[in-house]
């Protein structure tokens, strides 16, 4: 990626400094995502989108009474229903999730992780946490807190989609 600012330019105005920060955040995000994708593939033979769907389902708590509609999974991940359908189909085929008709509405299904899916996700989540610690371990607790706090207002400002702008950010 072309860096529009010379390395020795210490007199960046606010706008250029924010652009430089954005580029640095983008590079860091891409690096971390690429590492996570590779590690998930190598250690668990899975993909990051599949991990994300399983994470959304796992957060629902009791797998026997809770679950998500396909549209809720899509909304949680900020992707289309079509993107989620294939992933859910494979999770169900692999025995990692279940699909049941929603009572009173045969057009919609409730998706839940199976016991095997919860167990598999727990192992992936533990590894994921270790990997994030490794990849971002150069940041001490104070730096993490400061960066996280400084990005919260930007998150709300940047989200101009009326369907998602009202959502609370999860930790």
Task: Write a structural description.
By secondary structure, the protein is mostly helical. The chain has helices at 14-44, 48-58, 70-77, 81-93, 115-135, 141-158; strands at residues 68-69, 97-102, 105-113. The chain has a domain at 47-125: Arc Repressor Mutant, subunit A (Orthogonal Bundle), CATH 1.10.10.10. The chain contains six helices and three strands; from the N terminus they run ααβααββαα. Helix 1 (14-44) crosses helix 5, helix 2 (48-58) packs across helix 5 (115-135) and helix 3 packs across helix 4 (81-93). Mean pLDDT is 85; it is low at 164-171.
Short description:
This protein has helices at 14-44, 48-58, 70-77, 81-93, 115-135, 141-158, and strands at 68-69, 97-102, 105-113. With 171 residues, the chain is mainly alpha-helical.
Which properties best describe this structure?
6 helices; mainly alpha; globular; Arc Repressor Mutant, subunit A; 171 residues; three-stranded antiparallel β-sheet
Helicity range: 55-70%
CATH topology of the domain at 47-125, what is it called? Arc Repressor Mutant, subunit A
SSE order, as H and E? HHEHHEEHH
Distance, first to last CA? 30 Å
What is the strand and helix layout of this fold?
Elements: H1 14-44, H2 48-58, E1 68-69, H3 70-77, H4 81-93, E2 97-102, E3 105-113, H5 115-135, H6 141-158
Antiparallel strand pairs: 1-3, 2-3
Helix pairs in contact: 1-5, 2-5, 3-4
